[in-house]
Design a protein that fits this description.
Length: about 270
């Protein structure tokens, strides 16, 4: 494809200038090169701004120094795309695979994202990106801005009530009991993704965490919810029909008499 991501960026930018939503651009592009569906979390434009510290360090920057509260403020105005919502709600298994800490904390600020994760019936597995005791400066700043402890414990608090299984690196194993207190199933495994072989090993391990039984139970639960919703709709429809049927017949006869009188008047007018 040439220079890394240059080709897809040119393709997407070209279509975006013609007012096509991001999800439509990516779908058209990925259909040409892969069988996988790549869906953006949002079709909205993200207006990134420098924070006050970055502005003060910028050379030759003469514009007024606008500050913002956190790194993630701009994400609160972003809406989850309908395509992403449907994919999450209809999936049997959702894996969040070692995202950068800044990314996951930012994505959790997207409007409706957390609500949709809570409504998902499929199993949600989060693979912790932390495998070192010392985090880089960007990750530390992200934890600080989100007011969370800089560790797997901090990510656990951010993901409370959203994840079914939490996978941590073996180096973080001593925190396993503390993470479990937040109501999560926690497992540890060497999360080394440096080679294709280790990537495959991690993938196979993660997929075995969710037995077929759990997937079937999730689908059964989803089916029961849809049936219950359908029954509720039918009950409302039947109730509405009963109310219409129980209306006094006199009103209908009155309408008929009014129509007859109007027809007579129209006939007289026509004769005239």
């Amino acid at each position: 494809m040439g220079d890394l991501y240059l080709a897809p960026n040119i393709f997407i930018d070209f279509h975006r200038k013609n007012s096509h939503p991001l999800s439509e651009c990516i779908t058209e592009f990925t259909e040409k090169i892969t069988e996988a569906a790549i869906i953006p979390l949002s079709n909205d434009e993200l207006k990134q701004e420098l924070n006050s510290k970055e502005l003060s360090n910028a050379e030759g920057f003469n514009e007024p120094k606008n500050s913002k509260n956190t790194l993630f403020d701009e994400f609160e105005s972003i809406m989850l795309s309908n395509e992403a919502k449907e994919a999450i709600l209809e999936s049997e298994l959702i894996i969040i695979p070692k995202p950068p800490i800044v990314s996951i904390l930012a994505f959790l600020k997207i409007s409706k994202f957390q609500e949709v994760l809570k409504d998902a019936v499929g199993q949600i597995i989060f693979i912790s990106p932390i495998k070192e005791k010392e985090l880089d400066s960007t990750s530390l700043l992200a934890f600080q801005e989100a007011r969370l402890p800089p560790s797997s414990i901090g990510l656990t608090k951010a993901l409370r009530g959203l994840v079914d299984i939490y996978v941590i690196d073996t180096i973080e194993a001593p925190l396993k009991n503390r993470i479990t207190r937040y109501g999560k199933k926690v497992v540890s495994y060497p999360l080394n993704l440096d080679t294709a072989k280790t990537q495959l090993e991690v993938a196979e391990f993660v997929l075995k965490l969710t037995p077929l039984k759990d997937i079937v139970e999730s689908l059964e639960y989803k089916a029961k919810k849809e049936v219950a919703s359908l029954k509720q709709g039918l009950r409302k429809l039947v109730g509405g029909l009963k109310r219409i049927k129980s209306r006094p017949t006199s009103s209908k006869e009155d309408y008929k008499e009014e129509d007859t009188e109007k027809e007579k008047e129209d006939a007289v007018d026509n004769e005239s």
